[in-house]
Amino acid sequence: MTTPQEGPWLDDAAGRLIRPYTVSGGRTKPTTALDLLSMVMATGSTPQAHMGPEHSLALGLCDGPTSVAEIAAHLRLPAVVTKVLLSDLVDCGALTARAPRFHANPTDRSLLEAVLDGLRQRL
């Protein structure tokens, strides 16, 4: 039996009921450039085009700024499939997308040391 948080494509006994590429209609290239760290957020407008249940689940996860990687994890779908779904929602105006922000120097030693210190404190 399918549980709500797992979505319509997972079943406790049978496992994955629908192949991931079926969810995206066989498409593997999103129309919107999305990175795993891209932030997406619902605009509040309702999609005019018919969207599948996977689109609705993805849209429901975007009340606040949420990364593509986080949505893929919640949906238990490959990132490329999630990017196609989110791209559909951006195209119809239901989501906005923002590229990830990086510091001027992504290998800043002080930043890496601060992350390492934080990890050590958690152990």
From TrEMBL:
Source taxon at top rank: Bacteria
InterPro entries, per the entry: DUF742
Pfam families, per the entry: DUF742
PANTHER family attached to this UniProt entry: DUF742 DOMAIN-CONTAINING PROTEIN
Name of the featured protein: DUF742 domain-containing protein
